[in-house]
Amino acid sequence: MTMDAGQIHDAPPSDGKGTARARASAAERLRGFARAAFSTNLTSSTSRMRLVALLFLGIYGVIGGRLVFLGFRPDPANLRRAAAEAVAAARPDLLDRNGEILATDVKTMSVFAEPRRLIDKDEATELLTAALPQVDARELRERLASKKGFVWVKREVTPHQRDEVFHLGLPGVGLIAENKRVYPNGPIGAHVLGFANVDNVGIAGIEKFVDGQGLADLHGAGFSMTPEELSPITLSIDIKATHALRDELAKGVEHFKAQAGASAIMDVNTGEVIAMASLPDYDPNNPPDIHDVNIINRLNVGVYEMGSTFKALTIAMALDSGKVNLNSRFDAHSALTSGRFRIHDYHPQNRALTVPEVFTYSSNVGVARMALGQGVEKHRAFLRKMGQLTRMRTELPESAAPIVPQNWGELNTMTIAFGHGLAVAPLQAMMAVAALMNGGYLITPTFIKRSEEEARKDAPLVIKPETSEAMRYLMRLNAEKGTAKKVDIAGYFVGGKTGTAEKVIHGHYSKNRLFTTFMAVAPADKPKYLFMTLMDEPQGLPETGGYATAAYNAGSVTGKIIERVGPLLGLPPRFETPKEPFPILARLGYGFVNTPATGGGGH
Amino acid sequence: MLRFLNIVAILALVGSAIYAYSIKYQTSYRAEQIAKTKLEIKAEHDAIAVLRAEWSFMTRPERVQQLADRYLDLQPLTADNIVTARALPERAPHVDAIAAKLDMLGLGVASTPAADPGAAPTTPKTPTKTSVATQTRGTGHQR
Description:
The complex is a heterodimer of chains A (603) and B (143).
Chain A: H1 2-10, H2 19-38, H3 42-72, H4 79-86, E1 94-95, E2 101-113, H5 121-131, H6 137-145, E3 151-157, H7 159-168, E4 173-182, H8 190-193, E5 195-196, E6 202-204, H9 205-220, E7 233-234, H10 239-255, E8 260-267, E9 273-279, E10 304-305, H11 311-321, E11 329-332, E12 336-338, E13 341-343, E14 351-354, H12 355-360, H13 364-374, H14 376-385, H15 410-417, E15 423-424, H16 426-437, H17 452-457, H18 465-481, E16 495-505, E17 508-522, E18 529-536, H19 551-568, H20 583-587
Parallel strand pairs in A: 1-7
Antiparallel strand pairs in A: 1-2, 2-3, 2-4, 5-6, 8-9, 8-18, 10-15, 11-14, 12-13, 16-17, 17-18
Chain B: H1 2-58, H2 61-71, H3 97-104, H4 125-142
Helix pairs in contact in B: 3-4
């Protein structure tokens, strides 16, 4: 163009005389410009073509640049992203120790809407509520009127409803596949599993524990895992044993008209909880109100005074100190008086009792004297070492701290010696009793499958192995001729201890509202499983002579559980009693422990 | 010559274009197949998940117990139901009742037709007698 302009400038004559001439020259100049612009003169074509090429190059450059820009720009928050955030994430399967499914995901369809794309919101509301009768029309209308890009209409519709919604053909209404958590076993093992809500977020139990392991964070960051990528989690629970346990417990709770009951089986060598049930329970497929205190897991959320079961701890402390041996005698002539309190025995013998007798007659006076012999400080230190004074943490997010007396005096030591005045979670007490049985290793209970080596790795040795064996002997003796005869199931060499605590009603111990517990170990010579059953306010029945103490209710239920679960857990029944069940004690000079005791009638 | 080369070049161009298009179509066809198969795999996975859930729902101990209580005469296993291998009685020596009878009658083993040896101990007593009788008659005929 500049070259053209130069030519134009050269074209008109440049005299510069008068305005008329100047005007004429202007018109001429314009004409010259037009001629030059539209001329097809070949001399000027090259430069024009170059110009046009440049122009096009520019245009294409802009288009190309724009494409690259668009390509690199991050996706706007579109529907897919909104949907991916909203849908329930996949969760790993939960399996029992034998690989049976405890919880798994299935795909269901959910109906969603994009309010911005809806044409007629009233019509959409009307048609959708006709297809999905459970949806509230007014609420749906409000949701559809919002300015959001994505709203749920109804989660987890049936296949029939899905087809109906699909055939409505409404623009802006769609279906999306979601994961729904199902628990095929219903209430069996519910307290261990916990449950997940409609968004597949763990709310309680192992489900919540799994989320805490990073699954929830991943989903929040937008990395949704497909089910194939999630490896299943194997729990320590045996579903068949859990069913048998729950079935027997339910029968027992109903039979003895107890308010509640709970039962558990623990592997004493690994700390694995093999079975656990707490009644009343719930069906995780219909998640309950999580704040309902009636359905709590009584084994690790409730804290209770464990009653005579604690005597095992007191006796273990005394034996472990070395000051007391199996032949030591304790005065139980009369009730023990401390201030205005009197401690008396349930089965008073009114004589000096040896350590095994203290255990089998469940003598409160005997163990109180035993604890006093150790002193308050040692007693407290021992219970702390056994994990009874601090909150026990397992995989289950729910837990409860024990209720420890603030000013721990001699009277507290005397009562705690027989299980009154210190409230602990029953699972916590099981942990301590398991340590008394397994050779002295305090192993925190777990709900995830593990081996004995893993369990032993960081388990402190809290009592001597010979003390543990002495405790096993006492448990066995108690089942042979003491208060635990109900669990002496032939072939399993069971040992057991009853515990009956009076409940505190309006600040006083109530004589007729009892909390009964029962601990049993099988087999007593090579301990494998620890069984515990507890019952809240069981009633005396005519066939128990009106007694509601632990042996009659929790004890008989535990016996039935052992009988039924023993074959399931692969405990081989034995017919001849083991030749020398307690070798360490025999070497220490207590030869009498290896001869089976019989009789012992009235206690 | 030049023209021939031009024609060849054009043909090659057309040919390569056709080849390129066919490759492209095949690729997109295969890609579609892959996507479809992936969808099918996903659907199968979902179906397997549902079936697994259903299986464990159907075989849940609670239901199995109900069915067993209704249809089976099983009893809970107790210690008395189990015996050790040593407690089992010694296996009795194998007695061929027919052969013994034949021997008693003075007829040799060799002359009798070969009987199924496994069936001998399970045969009840009375039929044994009759069969011995018939066999005796039979052998008598052969003689």
